[in-house]
Specification:
The protein has 185 residues and is of the alpha+beta class. It is built from four helices and seven strands. 29% of the residues lie in helices and 34% in strands. Strand 6 and strand 7 (147-148) form a beta hairpin. Helix 2 packs across helix 4 and helix 3 (149-162) packs across helix 4.
Length: 185
């Protein structure tokens, strides 16, 4: 049986594992938010970056990409890789994935997705909500082993636009980061 993984952040543009198929689509009743701290990729323990996580949001959809992995060895390799890459995310949930907004039947059910929960006891890197200005300032200055935090934001914005998704939260943050950088701070 094939394993499916949903990516809503960097997995959209950089899977990092072998897969058989990639579908663009969405999951329901979640929204993408820059509330997860990153101390291992886009920031440091002293100055965490911000990456996306999902939060429940009745009636909303989150666009991204779902990856199908069929081969047994490829599944094991992908899971091992993802468990390291997504180690700061404390929850794995299985969701319905849709490719057509006019259809009520999911394209694929049981798609795995990693989520950084808002529970600080389980997810010590959860930063939570803040104003667009505050989040943007943090993103401008944070940098980690995977590069500047702003690069992650801009790559996510570009990847979402390439799949036809205009995510207001991501676009507002990207525009605020550009504004701050243009002022030289």
């Amino acid at each position: 049986m094939a394993m499916w993984v949903f990516g809503y952040g960097s997995l959209i543009w950089k899977a990092g594992f072998k897969y058989d198929d990639r579908l663009v689509g969405f999951i329901k009743d979640y929204r993408r938010v820059f509330y997860q701290g990153s101390t291992d990729h886009r920031g440091t323990p002293e100055y965490p970056g911000r990456t996306v996580t999902l939060e429940p949001a009745q009636g909303q959809v989150c666009w991204g990409a779902a990856y199908k992995i069929s081969n047994k060895e490829d599944k094991e390799t992908a899971l091992t890789y993802l468990e390291v890459r997504e180690k700061q995310y404390d929850k794995k949930v299985y969701v319905d994935f849709f490719t057509d907004p006019t259809v009520t039947t999911p394209t694929v059910s049981g798609v795995m997705v990693y989520i950084g929960s808002a529970d600080k006891k389980l997810n010590e890197n959860y930063l939570g909500p803040a104003s667009v200005e505050e989040i943007a300032k943090q993103i401008v200055h944070a940098e980690g082993p995977s590069g500047p935090n702003r690069e992650y934001l801009f790559q996510l914005e570009k990847a979402l636009l390439q799949i036809g998704c205009e995510d207001k939260h991501v676009m507002d943050l990207a525009n605020e980061v550009r504004r701050i950088r243009s002022m030289g701070s």
